[in-house]
């Protein structure tokens, strides 16, 4: 994800990075719950990413026509934007759930690392 909420360094499971987790003082039970949250959300995230990639591919097909249909292209742009928004919302939802597993001191340390 390029925009939106990002809690830690880019990557799937930053809370499992030993150095980063140690710096935040994450407890093993927190990491276990964060892993569970990730697993609960993974299917939805993958599905939304697939939808985005399909919409982008369809838009590319419409755009590469010698004489692109403007209405069809704008419709496809809307579909890409909606698919991207759906993915961003799903990712943000997961990250907010993960953030709820952290205490205020950990969140403060996280904010300092940004």
H/E element string? HHHH
Individual helix count: 4
Beta-strand segment tally: 0
- The parts where pLDDT drops under 50 for at least 5 residues are none
Helix content: over 70%
Q: What is the SS-derived class? A: mainly alpha
| Overall average pLDDT | 91
From the spread of the alpha carbons, the general shape counts as elongated
| Amount of beta strand | under 5%
Please supply descriptive tags for the structure shown above:
mainly alpha; 73% helix; 114 residues; 4 helices
Q: Any overview of this molecule?
A:
- Helices cover 73% and strands 0% of the residues.
- The protein is mainly α.
- It has a domain at 43-113.
- Helix 2 packs antiparallel against helix 3.
- The longest helix has 36 residues, at 28-63.
- The chain is elongated and about 60 Å long.
- The two termini are 16 Å apart.
């Amino acid at each position: 994800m390029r925009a939106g909420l990002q809690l830690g360094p880019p990557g799937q499971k930053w809370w499992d990075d030993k150095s980063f987790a140690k710096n935040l003082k994450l407890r093993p039970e927190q990491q276990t719950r964060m892993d569970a949250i990730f697993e609960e959300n993974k299917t939805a995230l993958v599905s939304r990413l697939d939808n985005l990639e399909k919409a982008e591919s369809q838009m590319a097909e419409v755009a590469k026509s010698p004489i692109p249909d403007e209405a069809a292209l704008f419709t496809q742009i809307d579909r890409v934007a909606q698919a991207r928004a759906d993915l961003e919302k799903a990712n943000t939802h997961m990250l907010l759930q993960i953030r709820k597993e952290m205490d205020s001191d950990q969140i403060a340390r996280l904010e300092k690392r940004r």
